[in-house]
Amino acid sequence: MEMQFPPMGTFFGHVLPGGSFLLWVVFWIAELVSPRGERATQTLERFNALRLGKLGLPLVGVAGELLWGLGLNNLQHATMYAAFSICGAFDLAAERGWLRPGATHLAFAVACANAAMLFMAHGSHGSMPAAMHGLLVAVLFSLGIVAIWETRGLGRAV
After folding, report:
1. Closest CA to 45 of 82, 94, 95
2. Whole-structure pTM value
3. d(Cα 126, Cα 107) in Å, to the nearest integer?
4. CA-wise closest residue to 31 among 45, 19, 18, 20
């Protein structure tokens, strides 16, 4: 029998992963609203901390899922976390000039599509989980489409 912490289907089993994704979004938003024209050392350190947070936070989720079990749900969650971590790695690479700016948006779109497909296949027990998974699928696919659309505003930098 596999050990899961926190147990799937419990309040904390949903709040901890959901909370980590909300924190990841806070990193993303904080990066977007930061003054980009300012090149002070403090601002650059903050950008790197945000990008490292976007890279590292999902890796903690991957490690947690793989340490506490190798069931199908754990692997699905680890895959979801890993896709968002890769998105953070793309941000770091674009900041260093190794990738074009639009690549970060495409990586985010792929992470959203990955999460949406996993939620479609995740399975639900009851009408409320099925409704929530359906809403998450719609939101994630919409975010992916918007991210791809935004690459047009980057001067077709992809």
Report:
1. 95
2. 0.74
3. 33
4. 45
